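To the structural biology subgroup,

Please find below the input and predicted structure for Voltage-dependent anion-selective channel protein, which we are adding to the shared reference set this quarter. The sequence is reproduced verbatim from the submission form. If anyone notices a discrepancy with their own records, reply to this email rather than editing the shared folder directly, so we keep one authoritative version.
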Amino acid sequence: MGNGPVPFSEIGKRARDLLTRDYNYDQKFSLDIPSSTGMGFTATGVKKGQIFVGDISTQYRSEKTIVDVKVDTYSNVSTKVTYDVAPGTKAAVSFNVPDHKSGKLDVHYLHHHAAINSSIGLNPSPQLEVSAAIGSKDIAIGGEVGFDTSSSSFTKYNAGISFNKQDFSAAVLLIDKGQTVKASYAHVVNPLTGTEVAAEMTHRLSSFQNSFSLGSVHKIDSLTSMKTRFSDDGKIAISSQREWRPKSLVTFSAEYDTKVINTAPKCGLSIALKP
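Predicted structure (tokenized):
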């Protein structure tokens, strides 16, 4: 299965993660307690300005079944049950309480030359989503379609192609119902120092507007990494992450808008503990 194509949702993910992942401008704390018995526990809290939100989630794993349950500060309960139907095929049922219309069935299929994901709402007028990618671990081409049965209309249709090697990754996506082209590229400059650069460019066909972002990541030492990002809208961002103990991370992020005078940069601190 490892030689098959990535799912469509992961086309362009390598550059996207370098440019966006770990950038957080709030105060966030998470505690992850795994268990050898198959039962895991995670608590997360985020402070956004004067508002604090949090959730507690548990995960139970057996040979073929995974059960995830999450409860947030607003008493919303999210449940997801995933079952290995056959080799390469998984089915998942998820629902939220008290939202009785949130039920959903997902089916994921992975093959040596294909990756197919489908989702359908478990209600009288469901939304149907299907995505597929074919190829190999080096090159994949795919697309996704969303259809709303209540209005008999397409909610989305996107397509993309990706090229992946150990030292680089490139992708081109046609999104927003064919109205936007997004191209991304990530390249390992120095494997010894973990230095990697990435770029993403977006072109809107209807308005002929272009936007881009450039980013990099560099390992200062075996436990510390530094990321930088620059966007055409004048925003500059940095993120520093340190593994102060095994699998426990402290991340500091900041973003400054050069086009807004006399404005302090946005800063955020994230602490993730895993005993």
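Summary notes: The longest strand covers residues 153-164. The two ends are 32 Å apart (CA to CA).

Regards,
Lab coordination
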